[in-house]
Amino acid sequence: EELYEVVQGDAAILNLADKRYRISGDFSVSSDNGWLLKMESSSGYDVRCEIDGNGRTITLTGEKEIEYHDEAGSASTTLKSAPMLFNHIYGTVHDMNIYCEKSLYGVPKYDSEENNTYNDGCGTIAYSVDGGKLSNIDVFGADGVFVQAGSPGGLVVSVHNEGTIEDCRCFLQVKQHLVKSTEAARFFGGGITSMATQAKITRCIYYPLSDSKSISSDYTGTNGRVYLGGIVGGLRIYDGKIPAMTISDCSSWFKCPLARGETNNGARRNGAIIGTSCYLDGTDKTGTTDCQGNWWLGSSVGAGRWLTSESAAIGTKNAVTPQTPTVPTIN
Fold this sequence. Notes:
Elements: H1 2-9, H2 11-14, E1 20-22, E2 27-30, E3 50-61, E4 64-68, E5 77-81, E6 88-89, E7 92-100, E8 104-105, E9 121-122, E10 126-130, E11 133-141, E12 146-149, E13 151-152, E14 156-160, E15 163-166, E16 169-170, E17 173-176, E18 186-190, E19 193-196, E20 198-202, E21 205-206, E22 215-217, E23 225-229, E24 232-235, E25 244-248, E26 251-252, E27 270-271, E28 274-276, E29 278-281, E30 283-286, E31 295-296, E32 303-305, H3 310-314
Parallel strand pairs: 1-3, 2-3, 3-7, 6-10, 7-11, 8-12, 9-13, 10-14, 11-15, 11-16, 12-17, 14-19, 15-20, 16-21, 17-22, 18-23, 19-24, 20-25, 21-26, 23-27, 26-31, 28-32
Antiparallel strand pairs: 4-5, 29-30
């Protein structure tokens, strides 16, 4: 109840940049109890203050129903989803654990003819880090739990306006749902964030619990630009601002191996660190800068799509193999 009052109930008084709140105990947030499922355009549930998680665990649970269909006239499917914790992060959220007891689904968006546009996005912590900061947060879940959307992110959907994510770890399965043909569009999925513009991600980890519980897409087309990345899915122009994305000292166990005899030619769609380091502005242009110290599995590609070279896109691979992360557990 206290968290609700800060970000929604009395937000005009309590949710201000000069306010700081410290969580004193573990608790659950449920979609069944009115904690809403949110989209980019929705209002409320933003964070403009500082929220100190104090090492506590917030459980995301509930089974709020979402009616979902692919195309006009197609059969509807009822999905049951836990909520995202917040909407947009303008302030600071740090030092907490996010435990997903139930799966999370993006709220579908439809065009005027009731065809699914697949522009839905979903993360666990928030829709976006909009000039704010996330730090020292672990995201994990019950067995078989995942986050699924057209643009899914293990922590958030988007990072922009100089937003920062640092010292965060994700152990959750990320699933991109794009059954309908999307030949003209670009869609991203990422272990930390689906997409980014002007942002910095440092010392973050994506560690899937198994190969089958990693990052995946059900896209079946041949020409669509669908990119998946262990840390970042891809880059986009946001609010007229061109990407300037820095990824440093991050580690990813997302497997993106080359086939026997295949070379890393920069034309792939999956990367252990980033799906694509390019953004579209008439033509593809490089949107990463000052990347360094990143590590990924030796058999994998670090950057799926790049223009000059992989090292120019995400830096030279860190020669020091990091320790395998310890998967958090719920008490």
